[in-house]
UniProtKB/TrEMBL annotation:
Family of the protein in this entry: Belongs to the ABC transporter superfamily.
Entry annotated with the keyword Cell membrane: yes
Leader sequence segment: none
Compartments reported by the entry: Cell membrane
GO molecular function, one term: ATP binding
Family matches, as NCBIfam families: ntrCD
Annotated Pfam families: ABC_tran
Annotated protein name in UniProt: ABC transporter ATP-binding protein
Originating organism: Gluconacetobacter sacchari
Database matches in InterPro entries: AAA+_ATPase (IPR003593), ABC_transporter-like_ATP-bd (IPR003439), ABC_transporter-like_CS (IPR017871), ABC_transporter_ATP-bind (IPR050166), NO3_transporter_ATP-bd-like (IPR005890), P-loop_NTPase (IPR027417)
Membrane topology designation: Peripheral membrane protein
Sorted UniProt keywords: ATP-binding, Cell membrane, Membrane, Nucleotide-binding, Transport
Length: 280
Protein backbone atom coordinates (compact mmCIF):
# COMPACT_ATOMS: atom_id res chain seq x y z
CA UNK A 1 0.00 0.00 0.00
CA UNK A 2 1.45 3.37 -0.95
CA UNK A 3 2.55 5.39 2.04
CA UNK A 4 4.68 8.22 0.84
CA UNK A 5 4.53 11.67 2.36
CA UNK A 6 6.92 13.17 -0.17
CA UNK A 7 5.17 12.07 -3.36
CA UNK A 8 1.67 13.45 -3.07
CA UNK A 9 0.64 13.05 -6.72
CA UNK A 10 -2.13 10.48 -7.12
CA UNK A 11 -1.72 7.36 -9.16
CA UNK A 12 -2.90 7.19 -12.79
CA UNK A 13 -1.38 10.49 -13.83
CA UNK A 14 1.24 10.82 -16.52
CA UNK A 15 2.17 14.49 -16.14
CA UNK A 16 2.76 16.22 -12.82
CA UNK A 17 -0.25 18.52 -12.13
CA UNK A 18 0.10 22.03 -10.73
CA UNK A 19 0.32 22.47 -6.95
CA UNK A 20 -2.66 24.61 -5.89
CA UNK A 21 -2.33 24.37 -2.11
CA UNK A 22 0.85 24.04 -0.09
CA UNK A 23 0.58 23.47 3.65
CA UNK A 24 3.98 23.78 5.32
CA UNK A 25 4.99 22.70 8.79
CA UNK A 26 1.65 23.76 10.22
CA UNK A 27 0.81 23.49 13.91
CA UNK A 28 -1.97 24.79 16.15
CA UNK A 29 -2.11 25.58 19.83
CA UNK A 30 -5.26 27.31 21.07
CA UNK A 31 -3.94 28.48 24.44
CA UNK A 32 -0.50 29.11 25.84
CA UNK A 33 0.64 26.23 28.06
CA UNK A 34 -1.88 23.88 26.45
CA UNK A 35 -0.48 21.15 24.19
CA UNK A 36 -0.30 21.58 20.42
CA UNK A 37 -3.48 20.14 18.87
CA UNK A 38 -1.40 19.05 15.84
CA UNK A 39 2.08 19.84 14.61
CA UNK A 40 4.47 19.52 11.65
CA UNK A 41 1.63 19.09 9.18
CA UNK A 42 2.79 19.48 5.57
CA UNK A 43 1.06 18.45 2.35
CA UNK A 44 0.30 19.66 -1.15
CA UNK A 45 -2.98 19.56 -3.03
CA UNK A 46 -2.76 19.53 -6.80
CA UNK A 47 -5.19 21.23 -9.12
CA UNK A 48 -8.23 18.98 -9.64
CA UNK A 49 -7.42 16.65 -6.74
CA UNK A 50 -10.03 15.39 -4.31
CA UNK A 51 -8.29 14.96 -0.96
CA UNK A 52 -9.96 13.52 2.15
CA UNK A 53 -8.66 13.93 5.69
CA UNK A 54 -9.44 11.19 8.20
CA UNK A 55 -8.55 10.89 11.87
CA UNK A 56 -10.10 10.38 15.27
CA UNK A 57 -12.16 13.01 17.01
CA UNK A 58 -10.05 15.84 18.43
CA UNK A 59 -6.94 15.34 16.26
CA UNK A 60 -7.50 18.76 14.69
CA UNK A 61 -9.18 18.05 11.34
CA UNK A 62 -11.65 20.95 11.57
CA UNK A 63 -8.87 23.21 12.83
CA UNK A 64 -6.84 22.40 9.71
CA UNK A 65 -9.83 23.06 7.45
CA UNK A 66 -10.60 26.31 9.27
CA UNK A 67 -7.01 27.46 8.74
CA UNK A 68 -7.30 26.65 5.01
CA UNK A 69 -10.56 28.65 5.00
CA UNK A 70 -8.81 31.59 6.72
CA UNK A 71 -11.15 31.36 9.73
CA UNK A 72 -8.32 30.41 12.12
CA UNK A 73 -4.62 31.28 12.14
CA UNK A 74 -1.93 28.61 12.47
CA UNK A 75 0.46 28.82 15.44
CA UNK A 76 3.36 27.61 13.30
CA UNK A 77 3.82 27.31 9.56
CA UNK A 78 1.26 28.39 7.01
CA UNK A 79 -0.79 27.80 3.91
CA UNK A 80 -0.15 29.09 0.40
CA UNK A 81 -3.00 28.88 -2.11
CA UNK A 82 -2.14 29.70 -5.70
CA UNK A 83 0.98 31.57 -4.63
CA UNK A 84 -0.70 33.64 -1.88
CA UNK A 85 -0.51 33.11 1.85
CA UNK A 86 -3.90 32.51 3.48
CA UNK A 87 -4.58 35.06 6.22
CA UNK A 88 -8.35 35.53 5.99
CA UNK A 89 -11.45 34.06 4.34
CA UNK A 90 -11.78 34.73 0.62
CA UNK A 91 -14.06 33.99 -2.31
CA UNK A 92 -11.34 31.82 -3.85
CA UNK A 93 -12.45 29.22 -1.26
CA UNK A 94 -15.93 27.76 -0.87
CA UNK A 95 -16.85 26.10 2.41
CA UNK A 96 -19.56 23.51 3.13
CA UNK A 97 -20.10 22.57 6.77
CA UNK A 98 -22.15 19.73 8.25
CA UNK A 99 -24.97 22.14 9.05
CA UNK A 100 -26.16 23.75 5.82
CA UNK A 101 -25.89 27.37 7.11
CA UNK A 102 -28.44 28.68 4.62
CA UNK A 103 -30.19 31.99 5.19
CA UNK A 104 -33.62 30.84 6.42
CA UNK A 105 -35.65 33.74 5.05
CA UNK A 106 -34.38 33.25 1.49
CA UNK A 107 -35.40 30.63 -1.07
CA UNK A 108 -32.83 28.15 -2.38
CA UNK A 109 -32.45 30.32 -5.48
CA UNK A 110 -31.98 33.49 -3.44
CA UNK A 111 -29.41 31.77 -1.20
CA UNK A 112 -27.31 30.76 -4.20
CA UNK A 113 -27.85 34.07 -6.02
CA UNK A 114 -26.63 35.88 -2.90
CA UNK A 115 -23.31 34.04 -3.15
CA UNK A 116 -23.04 34.62 -6.91
CA UNK A 117 -23.68 38.35 -6.34
CA UNK A 118 -20.91 38.49 -3.72
CA UNK A 119 -18.52 36.98 -6.24
CA UNK A 120 -19.69 39.09 -9.21
CA UNK A 121 -21.04 42.40 -7.88
CA UNK A 122 -21.19 43.96 -11.37
CA UNK A 123 -23.18 41.13 -13.01
CA UNK A 124 -26.74 41.82 -14.22
CA UNK A 125 -29.74 40.45 -12.27
CA UNK A 126 -30.43 38.13 -15.18
CA UNK A 127 -26.87 36.78 -15.27
CA UNK A 128 -26.85 36.19 -11.50
CA UNK A 129 -30.20 34.37 -11.64
CA UNK A 130 -29.11 32.25 -14.60
CA UNK A 131 -25.96 31.20 -12.83
CA UNK A 132 -27.78 30.39 -9.59
CA UNK A 133 -30.32 28.31 -11.53
CA UNK A 134 -27.53 26.50 -13.34
CA UNK A 135 -25.83 25.39 -10.12
CA UNK A 136 -29.11 24.38 -8.45
CA UNK A 137 -30.00 22.30 -11.52
CA UNK A 138 -26.53 20.73 -11.35
CA UNK A 139 -27.34 19.32 -7.88
CA UNK A 140 -30.80 18.17 -8.97
CA UNK A 141 -32.83 20.99 -7.43
CA UNK A 142 -34.29 22.64 -10.53
CA UNK A 143 -37.82 22.01 -9.28
CA UNK A 144 -37.25 23.09 -5.68
CA UNK A 145 -35.42 26.35 -6.19
CA UNK A 146 -38.27 28.53 -4.94
CA UNK A 147 -38.54 26.74 -1.63
CA UNK A 148 -37.17 28.07 1.62
CA UNK A 149 -34.82 25.92 3.73
CA UNK A 150 -37.57 24.82 6.16
CA UNK A 151 -39.53 23.41 3.19
CA UNK A 152 -36.58 21.24 2.06
CA UNK A 153 -35.32 17.90 3.37
CA UNK A 154 -31.90 17.69 5.05
CA UNK A 155 -30.38 16.24 1.87
CA UNK A 156 -31.89 19.00 -0.26
CA UNK A 157 -30.61 21.69 2.08
CA UNK A 158 -27.14 20.21 1.89
CA UNK A 159 -27.40 20.20 -1.91
CA UNK A 160 -28.25 23.91 -1.81
CA UNK A 161 -25.12 24.43 0.29
CA UNK A 162 -23.08 22.53 -2.29
CA UNK A 163 -24.65 24.50 -5.17
CA UNK A 164 -23.89 27.72 -3.33
CA UNK A 165 -20.26 26.73 -2.78
CA UNK A 166 -19.84 25.72 -6.45
CA UNK A 167 -21.62 28.86 -7.72
CA UNK A 168 -18.76 31.07 -6.60
CA UNK A 169 -16.42 28.90 -8.68
CA UNK A 170 -13.88 28.61 -5.87
CA UNK A 171 -10.36 27.50 -6.59
CA UNK A 172 -10.62 25.26 -3.54
CA UNK A 173 -13.75 23.67 -2.11
CA UNK A 174 -13.51 22.91 1.61
CA UNK A 175 -15.99 20.45 3.10
CA UNK A 176 -16.22 19.57 6.79
CA UNK A 177 -18.19 16.31 7.10
CA UNK A 178 -20.82 17.67 4.71
CA UNK A 179 -22.93 14.50 4.72
CA UNK A 180 -22.51 13.52 8.37
CA UNK A 181 -26.10 14.37 9.29
CA UNK A 182 -27.73 12.64 6.31
CA UNK A 183 -29.25 9.17 6.13
CA UNK A 184 -27.19 6.54 4.31
CA UNK A 185 -29.29 6.50 1.13
CA UNK A 186 -29.31 10.27 0.68
CA UNK A 187 -25.62 10.44 1.52
CA UNK A 188 -24.82 7.87 -1.15
CA UNK A 189 -26.77 9.73 -3.81
CA UNK A 190 -25.17 13.08 -3.04
CA UNK A 191 -21.68 11.54 -2.83
CA UNK A 192 -21.99 10.22 -6.37
CA UNK A 193 -23.39 13.52 -7.63
CA UNK A 194 -20.52 15.35 -5.99
CA UNK A 195 -17.94 13.06 -7.57
CA UNK A 196 -19.53 13.51 -11.01
CA UNK A 197 -19.62 17.32 -10.66
CA UNK A 198 -16.05 17.49 -9.37
CA UNK A 199 -14.82 15.34 -12.24
CA UNK A 200 -16.71 17.44 -14.82
CA UNK A 201 -15.58 20.78 -13.40
CA UNK A 202 -12.10 19.60 -12.32
CA UNK A 203 -12.89 21.09 -8.91
CA UNK A 204 -10.15 20.84 -6.29
CA UNK A 205 -11.59 19.61 -2.98
CA UNK A 206 -10.35 19.17 0.58
CA UNK A 207 -12.86 17.25 2.65
CA UNK A 208 -13.05 15.89 6.19
CA UNK A 209 -14.87 12.64 6.74
CA UNK A 210 -15.16 9.91 9.36
CA UNK A 211 -16.47 7.47 6.80
CA UNK A 212 -13.84 5.21 5.24
CA UNK A 213 -16.12 4.15 2.35
CA UNK A 214 -16.93 7.78 1.59
CA UNK A 215 -13.20 8.51 1.38
CA UNK A 216 -12.61 5.52 -0.91
CA UNK A 217 -15.42 6.64 -3.23
CA UNK A 218 -14.52 10.33 -3.36
CA UNK A 219 -10.84 10.81 -2.67
CA UNK A 220 -7.88 10.61 -5.01
CA UNK A 221 -5.75 10.78 -1.87
CA UNK A 222 -6.50 10.12 1.78
CA UNK A 223 -4.55 11.94 4.48
CA UNK A 224 -4.46 10.08 7.80
CA UNK A 225 -3.97 11.97 11.06
CA UNK A 226 -2.62 10.26 14.17
CA UNK A 227 -4.42 10.82 17.46
CA UNK A 228 -4.05 14.07 19.35
CA UNK A 229 -2.80 15.94 21.21
CA UNK A 230 0.26 16.76 19.11
CA UNK A 231 -1.35 14.87 16.24
CA UNK A 232 0.70 14.36 13.09
CA UNK A 233 -0.08 13.76 9.46
CA UNK A 234 0.93 10.12 9.58
CA UNK A 235 0.19 8.90 6.05
CA UNK A 236 -0.67 10.27 2.64
CA UNK A 237 -2.23 7.42 0.70
CA UNK A 238 -3.15 7.44 -3.00
CA UNK A 239 -6.45 5.77 -3.90
CA UNK A 240 -5.59 2.82 -6.15
CA UNK A 241 -9.11 2.71 -7.66
CA UNK A 242 -9.81 4.70 -10.86
CA UNK A 243 -11.86 7.94 -10.73
CA UNK A 244 -14.71 6.24 -12.56
CA UNK A 245 -15.55 4.41 -9.31
CA UNK A 246 -19.16 4.13 -8.16
CA UNK A 247 -20.61 2.92 -4.86
CA UNK A 248 -22.13 -0.06 -6.59
CA UNK A 249 -19.02 -1.24 -8.43
CA UNK A 250 -16.08 -0.16 -6.32
CA UNK A 251 -16.21 -3.27 -4.11
CA UNK A 252 -15.42 -5.33 -7.20
CA UNK A 253 -12.39 -3.25 -8.24
CA UNK A 254 -9.05 -4.89 -7.63
CA UNK A 255 -7.30 -3.31 -4.67
CA UNK A 256 -10.54 -2.21 -2.94
CA UNK A 257 -10.30 -4.49 0.07
CA UNK A 258 -6.56 -3.97 0.51
CA UNK A 259 -7.06 -0.20 0.47
CA UNK A 260 -10.06 -0.35 2.81
CA UNK A 261 -8.25 -2.64 5.27
CA UNK A 262 -5.27 -0.28 5.22
CA UNK A 263 -7.46 2.69 6.20
CA UNK A 264 -9.47 0.79 8.82
CA UNK A 265 -6.30 -0.68 10.35
CA UNK A 266 -4.92 2.84 10.64
CA UNK A 267 -7.99 4.03 12.51
CA UNK A 268 -8.26 1.06 14.89
CA UNK A 269 -4.56 0.46 15.51
CA UNK A 270 -1.84 2.54 13.89
CA UNK A 271 -3.31 6.00 14.64
CA UNK A 272 -2.61 5.46 18.33
CA UNK A 273 0.86 4.00 17.78
CA UNK A 274 2.27 6.75 15.58
CA UNK A 275 3.28 8.89 18.56
CA UNK A 276 5.50 6.13 19.90
CA UNK A 277 6.78 4.75 16.60
CA UNK A 278 6.30 6.89 13.47
CA UNK A 279 7.39 3.99 11.24
CA UNK A 280 4.31 1.90 12.04
N1 LIG B 1 -11.68 27.73 18.92
C1 LIG B 1 -11.13 26.84 19.75
N2 LIG B 1 -10.66 27.22 20.95
C2 LIG B 1 -10.08 26.34 21.79
N3 LIG B 1 -9.92 25.03 21.51
C3 LIG B 1 -10.37 24.59 20.33
C4 LIG B 1 -10.99 25.47 19.39
N4 LIG B 1 -11.34 24.74 18.29
C5 LIG B 1 -10.94 23.48 18.53
N5 LIG B 1 -10.36 23.40 19.76
C6 LIG B 1 -9.79 22.17 20.36
O1 LIG B 1 -8.87 21.63 19.45
C7 LIG B 1 -8.94 20.20 19.42
C8 LIG B 1 -9.18 19.74 18.01
O2 LIG B 1 -10.48 20.17 17.59
P1 LIG B 1 -10.98 19.96 16.11
O3 LIG B 1 -12.42 20.33 16.07
O4 LIG B 1 -10.09 20.64 15.15
O5 LIG B 1 -10.81 18.37 15.96
P2 LIG B 1 -11.49 17.35 14.95
O6 LIG B 1 -10.46 16.35 14.60
O7 LIG B 1 -12.13 18.10 13.82
O8 LIG B 1 -12.63 16.69 15.85
P3 LIG B 1 -14.03 16.04 15.43
O9 LIG B 1 -13.72 14.88 14.55
O10 LIG B 1 -14.62 15.63 16.74
O11 LIG B 1 -14.84 17.11 14.75
C9 LIG B 1 -10.04 19.82 20.40
O12 LIG B 1 -9.44 19.46 21.61
C10 LIG B 1 -10.85 21.08 20.54
O13 LIG B 1 -11.44 21.18 21.82
Amino acid sequence: MPNDLSASAPLHRTTEPRVLVRVSDMGKQYRQNSPMVFENVSFDIHQGDFVCLIGHSGCGKSSILNILAGLEQPTTGGVIIDGREVTRPGLDRGVVFQGHALLPWMTALQNVAFAVRAREPAASRHAVREKAEHYLAMVGLAKAMHKKPFELSGGMRQRVGIARAFSTQPRLLLMDEPFGALDALTRGLIQEELLRICTETRQTVFMITHDVDEAILLADRVLLMSNGPSAKLAEDVANPLPRSRTRERMHHESGFYEFRNHLVDFLVRRSALVQSDPNL
